[in-house]
Design goal:
4 helices
């Protein structure tokens, strides 16, 4: 397992200015970003050995993180077209 956090800036390194713009102009993006940060932080604590929940819970968190990345990706793509 990786002990490296997967921040949105790491997931979308070529879109940092756009992520910033969305954060100041799009409330839905802010909500998604905050949820991602919470879920990602929990996964990071688990992978670092700070928390030790059941495997099924870890998998559900990873699926939530992936779904949030997909939603953020859709917003980033929309913003690029606009």
């Amino acid at each position: 397992m990786s002990n490296t956090p997967h921040e949105l800036a790491d997931v979308f390194p070529d879109d940092l200015p756009l992520l910033h713009e969305l954060k100041i102009s799009n409330p839905h993006f802010v909500t998604l970003s905050n949820r991602y940060h919470e879920v990602n932080g929990e996964i990071h604590r688990i992978e670092a050995g700070i928390e030790t929940p059941a495997d099924a819970y870890v998998e559900s968190l990873k699926k939530k993180r992936l779904a949030l990345v997909d939603e953020v990706s859709a917003l980033v793509s929309q913003a690029k077209v606009s």
